[in-house]
Write a structure and sequence with these properties.
The chain has five helices and twelve strands. It is of the alpha/beta class and about 260 residues long.
C-alpha cells in the first residue's frame, strides 16, 4: 500500500480563494475522490491476506505530467491481491488549498494533482482508499506522511527527493517515481542516431538543447546554429541520475565534414 504526498512545494503556504470576477472560480473537491463509507475512519488499514502493503502516492504529479501512467498498477507484479493506494485526507486538503490558490501556477498544479488522482482511481486494478488518519500534533505534511506510512506498514510513492531521503532515514520504504519512469524509458546507446528539434541555447558556447517526448534533455554540440530547426544527431554519451537523464550528442553532419570552431 502506498501513501500519497502532495507536491506543492514548501513555499505553497496557505492558499486563498480568488475574489471577484477575475480568475478561475474555486473548484470543489472532486466527487470521485471519496473514501469507503463502510470503513471506520479511525480504524487501522491492513493489507488484504497475501496482498502487498499499501502505497502512499505523491501530492502532485511530476512536472512533465507523467504521474498518471506511473501508477501502482505498473509496479512490480507477483502478488495475488491488487495494490492499495492510500490517500490521507490531509493530502487532499492540501491539494484543495493549492487548487484554490490565487496564484495561477499553483492553482493549475493543484488541479492537475486532483485530476491525476481521479485517473488513478478509475484504474480497474488499483484500489484507492481515502482515510482520515491524521497526526494533529505534527504540522509538516511530509512528516505526517512518514508517520502514516509507519502506522499502516506502507511505502511512500513520491518524486520529492528530500522526502525520499528523510523517509529512508526513518526506516520507511520509498518508491521513487523518477526512477520508475526512467526504468520505462527506451535505452539510448552511444553511436545511435536520433532526430531532434533544437529549442534553445545550451550552457556551453555553441551548444543547443532539445527534448525528447518523455522530457529527456538532449544537449547538441554545435547545435546553436540550428535553433528552431530539426536535425539528425549522434549520441556521444548518456548521463543517468535519480533526477532523470541527459543525452549528449553531436550533429550527424559533422561525421561527414571537417569540424569548425565554436559558434559564438
Amino acid at each position: 500500500m502506498g501513501v500519497a504526498a502532495p507536491g506543492g512545494g514548501r513555499g505553497a503556504g496557505r492558499a486563498r480563494r480568488p475574489r471577484g470576477g477575475g480568475g478561475d472560480p474555486a473548484r470543489p473537491p472532486p466527487p470521485a475522490l471519496r473514501g469507503d463509507p463502510g470503513r471506520d475512519p479511525g480504524a487501522p488499514l491492513r493489507s488484504a491476506p497475501g496482498g502487498r502493503p499499501p502505497l502512499l502516492p505523491p501530492r502532485l504529479p511530476p512536472r512533465h505530467g507523467a504521474g498518471a501512467p506511473v501508477a501502482p498498477a505498473r509496479l512490480p507484479r507477483g502478488e495475488p491481491a491488487p495494490p492499495s493506494l492510500l490517500i490521507p485526507q490531509f493530502v487532499l486538503r492540501e491539494l484543495q488549498q493549492i487548487a484554490d490558490s490565487s496564484d495561477s501556477l499553483k492553482r493549475n498544479r493543484g488541479r492537475r494533482g486532483l485530476d491525476v488522482l481521479q485517473k488513478i482511481q478509475r484504474m480497474p486494478k488499483v484500489k484507492v482508499e481515502i482515510h482520515e488518519l491524521d497526526f494533529p500534533q505534527i504540522r509538516e505534511v511530509d512528516r505526517k506522511l512518514i508517520e502514516c506510512a509507519k502506522a499502516v506498514g506502507g511505502k511512500i510513492l513520491t518524486n520529492d527527493y528530500n522526502l525520499n531521503k528523510v523517509a529512508e532515514l526513518h526506516g520507511v520504504r520509498v518508491l521513487n517515481i523518477n526512477e520508475l519512469a526512467n526504468a520505462l524509458k527506451p535505452v539510448v546507446l552511444p553511436g545511435e542516431v536520433m532526430h531532434v528539434h533544437v529549442l534553445k541555447e545550451g550552457k556551453e558556447s555553441g551548444q543547443g538543447v532539445a527534448y525528447l517526448d518523455d522530457g529527456t534533455m538532449v544537449v547538441v554540440d554545435h547545435g546553436k546554429k540550428h535553433l528552431g530547426q530539426s536535425v539528425d544527431v549522434m549520441v556521444t554519451s548518456v548521463l543517468q541520475t535519480t533526477a532523470g537523464r541527459m543525452i549528449f550528442t553531436r550533429l550527424r553532419e559533422e561525421e561527414y565534414a571537417p569540424r569548425g570552431g565554436d559558434d559564438r
